[in-house]
Write a structure and sequence with these properties.
Oligomer: single chain
Distance between the termini: 11 Å
Shape: globular
Structural class: mainly alpha
Helix content: 55-70%
Strand content: under 5%
Strand order of the largest sheet: 1-2
Number of helices: 12
Order of helices and strands: HHHHHHHHEEHHHEEH
């Protein structure tokens, strides 16, 4: 992909995918490649993670190896399919390649769905706390039954910031570097981490060792995009202290999610946290109803800025091949 037509096709596909996401949202479940990835991971996961009664003590190298092999098998299939599809499309007419690549890239992005779900949490909170909790449960994996109104709002804003990276910045970053295979592999890794990357029990199975490879793979692939997401939020907000961001980001257990979440907390000047686990920007005020809308606006600006930067970079590379 070092010729102008190929690189320019990637730039066009990127912008088209974002437009389709804004206009149409998610494709039907039966045609959604991320759902297919989840189906494979769910099926094979039942064979590699021990049930609660089978979980042992200490390191379980066998489960770790099984998890790594199962993850790698899925990654090879996803990467190979995306590679051969892209190679075939790039041999077609340029316009057809742009349209079809854009339509294939779109399901690997989910900004509109994320934005709508976060706004729905705030709308539900205006009805009742129970409605807000129920809506938040669609968005996060944590137990929401004991959260108060402020904590529900904090969780929604945190989810928006974290998934701004996972659902948009990171897949577009890898798409710009490696094309459709890069975006597909990232979403596969991120989906595997969401389903397997737990230190302990989830749905009656112990993922401590079976999911360790998946968690570490996602950490590696998300490391730079997470920091880029924080930088984008800092740029669109303006006046954000990078020193303050560097001080806040490491407070979360994850090596990556703290960056976009801390950037959002500082940009909104609100306190965000997970009870008993971490607090970001402790000096900030409690988030108010308007802050969810403000968070969405910042995310929208970050998406636009990143799309413009990536598109210009791809066109520049296409016009000036090495």
């Amino acid at each position: 992909m070092d010729s102008c037509p190929h690189v320019c096709a990637l730039a066009g596909a990127l912008w088209l995918a974002l437009l389709v996401d804004r206009w149409l949202g998610e494709p039907p479940v039966r045609w959604h490649p991320v759902v297919w990835m989840g189906s494979y991971l769910g099926w094979i996961g039942r064979h590699i993670a021990p049930q609660r009664t089978q979980a042992g003590q200490g390191a379980d190298i066998r489960r770790f190896v099984l998890g790594a092999l199962a993850w790698s098998l899925g990654a090879m299939v996803v990467g190979a399919l995306a590679f051969f599809v892209q190679q075939g499309l790039l041999s077609w007419h340029a316009l057809a390649a742009v349209v079809l690549l854009g339509l294939l890239l779109k399901p690997l992005l989910a900004w509109r769905m994320l934005r709508d779900e976060v706004q729905a949490v705030e709308a539900a909170l205006q009805t009742s706390l129970e409605s807000g909790r129920a809506q938040l449960a669609r968005l996060v994996s944590r137990d929401v039954s004991a959260l108060d109104e402020q904590q529900v709002r904090e969780s929604a804003i945190e989810s928006l910031a974290e998934n701004l990276n996972d659902s948009l910045v990171a897949p577009l970053f890898w798409f710009a570097l490696l094309g459709l295979p890069g975006a597909a592999l990232y979403r596969y890794a991120n989906t595997a981490d969401a389903m397997w990357g737990y230190r302990g029990l989830r749905e009656g199975r112990d993922w401590t060792w079976a999911g360790k490879w998946a968690a570490r793979a996602d950490d590696v692939l998300s490391w730079l995009p997470a920091r880029l997401t924080a930088l984008l939020l800092a740029l669109v907000r303006g006046g954000l202290s990078w020193r303050a961001l560097r001080a806040q980001a490491p407070r979360t257990p994850s090596p990556n999610s703290g960056w976009p979440m801390a950037a959002m907390a500082l940009a909104l000047d609100v306190r965000l946290g997970k009870p008993g686990v971490y607090v970001l920007h402790e000096a900030g005020r409690a988030p108010r109803a308007a802050d969810c809308a403000r968070a969405v606006q910042l995310g929208e600006r970050a998406v636009l800025l990143f799309a413009l930067l990536l598109g210009v970079a791809l066109l520049f590379v296409g016009e000036n091949p090495a």
